[in-house]
């Protein structure tokens, strides 16, 4: 019985691996042709999440989009969103499994950006301007999002509309980010705040804290 179980298990795993390879979205298969651009060597792993608005999505060369990642442009499928792309992901990125990237106006993700699993990035949010109308029925508000090249977004991070992250930024796991942060920022918390930065003079330091003793002489 153990030999039979082992043989069946081997067949199941091999079969599922074959399904994953066949189900992946690449530039070589028909699903890949629907995108505004799906670069050379780019892959969207199987099974994918909800994907629509492909003509307005550009994904760079050798970018890996993990399993169950949702990529969407617009409120629902079938909309005409204009002549240009709305969601742009650069080359060499890795988008962690279960993440959601929801674009309505403009989301730019630079090159070599890596994310942990279950990251949420959107350029649209609900408003609560009118206290007499249910929030879900008020017209949402858009604001572009930009994530600089070389950045890392930890598991479960949320990037809200209007966020601009510079190059080589770190977003801590579970952070809820809104605002503008310069290159080489480390942001953490809810709401996220700048907890570390980098300058050639001071190296990595806490911008809100005292200058370390071994740096004061160089800074003076």
The CATH topology comes to: UDP N-Acetylglucosamine Acyltransferase, domain 1
Radius of gyration: 21 Å
What's the order of the H and E elements?
HHEEEEEEEEEEEEEEEEEEEEEEEEH
Gross geometry: globular
Largest sheet strand order: 1-4-7-10-15-18-21
Number of domains: 1
Strand content: 25-35%
- Note the gap between the termini: 76 Å
CATH superfamily: Hexapeptide repeat proteins
Secondary-structure class: alpha/beta
Give the fraction of residues assigned to helices: 10-25%
Question: Main beta sheet: strand number and arrangement?
Answer: 7 strands, parallel
Counting DSSP H or I runs of 4 or more residues, the number of helices is 3
CATH architecture: 3 Solenoid
Low-confidence stretches: 216-220
Write down the CATH class: Mainly Beta
Calculate the mean pLDDT score and round it.
Answer: 90
Query: How many extended strands?
Result: 24
Reconstruct the topology from this structure.
Blueprint: H1 2-23, H2 30-33, E1 37-38, E2 43-44, E3 51-52, E4 57-59, E5 64-65, E6 70-73, E7 87-89, E8 94-95, E9 100-103, E10 107-109, E11 114-115, E12 120-122, E13 124-125, E14 141-142, E15 145-147, E16 152-153, E17 158-159, E18 164-165, E19 170-171, E20 176-177, E21 180-181, E22 186-188, E23 193-199, E24 203-205, H3 213-219
Parallel strand pairs: 1-4, 2-5, 3-6, 4-7, 5-8, 6-9, 7-10, 9-12, 10-15, 11-16, 12-17, 15-18, 16-19, 17-20, 18-21, 19-22
Antiparallel strand pairs: 13-14, 22-23, 23-24
Family: Belongs to the transferase hexapeptide repeat family.
GO molecular function: O-acyltransferase activity
Organism: Nonomuraea phyllanthi
């Amino acid at each position: 019985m153990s030999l039979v179980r082992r043989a069946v298990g081997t067949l199941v795993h091999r079969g599922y691996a074959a399904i994953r390879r066949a189900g992946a979205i690449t530039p070589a298969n028909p699903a890949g042709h629907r995108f505004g651009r799906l670069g050379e060597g780019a892959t969207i792993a199987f099974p994918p999440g909800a994907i629509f608005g492909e003509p307005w999505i550009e994904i760079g060369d050798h970018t890996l989009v993990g399993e169950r990642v949702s990529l969407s442009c617009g409120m629902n499928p079938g909309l005409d969103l204009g002549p240009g792309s709305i969601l742009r992901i650069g080359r060499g990125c890795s988008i962690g499994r279960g993440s959601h990237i929801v674009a309505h106006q403009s989301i730019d993700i630079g090159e070599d950006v890596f994310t942990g699993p279950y990251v949420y990035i959107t350029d649209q949010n609900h408003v609560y301007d009118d206290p007499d109308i249910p929030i879900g029925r008020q017209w949402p508000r858009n604001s572009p999002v930009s994530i600089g090249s070389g950045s890392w977004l930890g598991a479960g991070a949320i990037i809200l509309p209007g966020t601009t992250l510079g190059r080589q930024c770190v977003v801590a796991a579970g952070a809820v980010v809104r605002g503008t942060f310069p290159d080489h920022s480390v942001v953490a918390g809810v709401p996220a705040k700048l907890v570390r930065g980098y300058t050639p003079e001071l190296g990595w330091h806490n911008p809100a804290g005292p200058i370390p003793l071994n740096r004061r002489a160089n800074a003076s």
